[in-house]
Design goal:
The protein is of the alpha/beta class. Helix content is about 45%, strand content about 15%. The strands form four sheets. A five-stranded parallel beta sheet has the order 2-1-3-4-5, sandwiched between helices. Strands 7-8-11-6-12 form a five-stranded parallel beta sheet. A two-stranded antiparallel sheet has the order 9-10. The radius of gyration is 25 Å and the shape is globular. It binds adenosine-5'-triphosphate and magnesium ion (MG). Magnesium ion binds next to helix 7.
Length: about 450
């Protein structure tokens, strides 16, 4: 999260800036609106502008709009002149932040501006039990291993643990071990010094250091190769890391949460996951149940997503009808919460009238028969990526969801297969899950 401050950091605005920094924001400062515009043109990463009321906020908002720079502007000033605050809002400021700033208000503004809504919705008793267990261990320093099928909300739960932890004011950093090529993962985790390899033009801090005093979520940890697992174990035991090409270790204070949608004990037995690392990470384990196992959550999640996507798309919030909710509750949800989210997003866009009715609920997957490809001739006229997707999904069906077996048959790496499946799941395609007793 990057925040650009327009105004002097000497007074109460500076104090607000320091609170934002303590909440993990990176700060940049400009003495006037013109300088700010130069910065904003050069740096697309600014998420939020805090501007002293003393400046012409209307002119700034207009200049941003003219250059198509989409960044929210929050006006800041002492509450002495309520008219000035009103004028700023009318001129296009997103909010007014009264100074001296209230830390909770700053946190709320930062969260709203980052566009990230990580609220964890829970109604079903089965899920409530998991959340209760998570909250019990949140304030400890223990590593937690979170497992569950794809799209069940493992990351949402990890963020919830961070928010309830003593590290809540520190950063939450997530790293997906499966999404990063093996040869880059080490530098991504531990960083590197200038000259550590050709192309290392400057020192780069890795995720471990970025998460200092906070929480590091290692997603899909089972995808990390054994050599790197040894380095990770050392980092956890010694509480220090070695940057690539670094001369001396660097102390880090990081709490680790990890997720896996593979059966880690089985990976340990197969020798692909270190047993000592497994025990180190698995101080507490949490299983996020599949959406099928917690039907009581479906209506609340659907409502939540309907509101979210109405807002994102600038549409009025409409309620789901009883018939639509009944349809949702009876579906199998192989794609879990993510599939539900996509379904509701579609429904928000498709619904006509002042409620979201059953006609707008398009369920993907099981009901839609996949075209059977028996001969190459029958494939002519279809898109390559569609054919690939059908082949992958049908091979997985054939192997009862066993990823390893399917990857072998398809002649691709498990990593490549998993990346494809993640994309499909994100598109709302129902991906066969591993059958009971079959290693994922
Ligand atoms: N309990 C919940 N409340 C609100 N939103 C949720 C909840 N669970 C999941 N979601 C939403 O569903 C989507 C998938 O959740 P998340 O990314 O946490 O799942 P995951 O288990 O980490 O998935 P993957 O296995 O693909 O990594 C996200 O958009 C998330 O915001
Ligand atoms: Mg995840």
């Amino acid at each position: 999260m990057r925040v650009l401050i327009i105004g002097s950091l000497g007074g109460e605005l500076g104090q607000a800036a320091r609170i934002a920094m303590a909440r993990g924001a990176k700060l940049d400062q400009a003495d006037d609106a013109d300088t700010a515009l130069v910065r904003l043109r050069a740096d697309a990463r600014v998420d939020l502008v805090l501007c002293d009321l003393a400046y012409d906020i209307g002119a700034l908002v207009q200049a941003l709009a003219a250059e198509r720079i989409a960044v929210p502007v929050v006006a800041c000033g002492t509450g002495d002149d309520p008219d000035a605050a009103v004028r700023a809002i009318q001129a296009g400021a997103r909010e007014f932040l009264p100074l001296p700033a209230d830390p909770d208000l700053i946190a709320a503004i930062l969260e709203a501006a980052s566009g990230e809504n990580h609220a964890l919705i829970v109604r079903d008793a089965v899920m409530a039990a998991t959340v209760r267990r998570a909250e019990q261990v949140a304030r400890s320093e223990a590593s937690v291993l979170i497992h569950g099928e794809s799209g069940t909300g493992k990351e949402v739960l990890a963020r919830h643990i961070h928010r309830r932890s003593r590290r809540a004011a520190g950063p939450f950093i997530a790293l997906n071990c499966a999404a990063i090529p093996e040869n880059l993962l080490e530098s991504e985790l531990f960083g590197h010094e200038k000259g550590a390899f050709s192309g290392a033009l400057a020192r780069r801090v890795g995720k471990f250091e970025a998460a200092d005093h906070g929480t590091l979520l290692l997603d899909e940890i089972s995808e990390m190769d054994v050599r790197l697992q040894a380095k990770l174990l050392r980092a956890l035991q010694e509480r220090e890391i070695d940057r690539l090409g670094g001369a001396a270790p660097v102390k880090v204070d990081v709490r680790i949460l990890a997720t896996s949608n593979r059966d880690l004990p089985a990976e340990v037995k197969r020798g692909t996951f270190r047993e000592d690392l497994y025990y180190r990470l698995n101080v507490v384990s949490l299983r996020v149940p599949g959406l099928r196992e917690r039907p009581g959550d479906i209506a609340a999640l659907a409502d939540h997503f309907a509101r979210k996507y109405a807002e994102v798309n600038g549409m009025p919030n409409r309620r789901l009808t009883q018939a639509a909710l009944a349809r949702l509750t009876s579906h199998g949800w192989r794609g879990n919460v993510r599939e539900l989210e996509n379904t509701i997003h579609r429904a928000v866009l498709l619904a006509e009238g002042d409620s979201i009715d059953i006609g707008a609920i398009e369920l993907s997957g099981t009901e839609t028969p996949q075209p059977a490809a028996t001969s190459v001739n029958s494939l002519v006229g279809r898109r390559m990526e569609e054919v690939e997707r059908d082949l992958i999904i049908q091979t997985l069906d054939h192997t009862l969801g066993n990823r390893t077996h399917a990857a072998t048959i398809l002649g691709i790496s498990i990593r490549a297969l998993r990346n494809k499946l993640r994309d499909y799941a994100a598109q709302g395609v129902a991906v066969p899950r591993p059958a009971a007793g079959v290693a994922a």
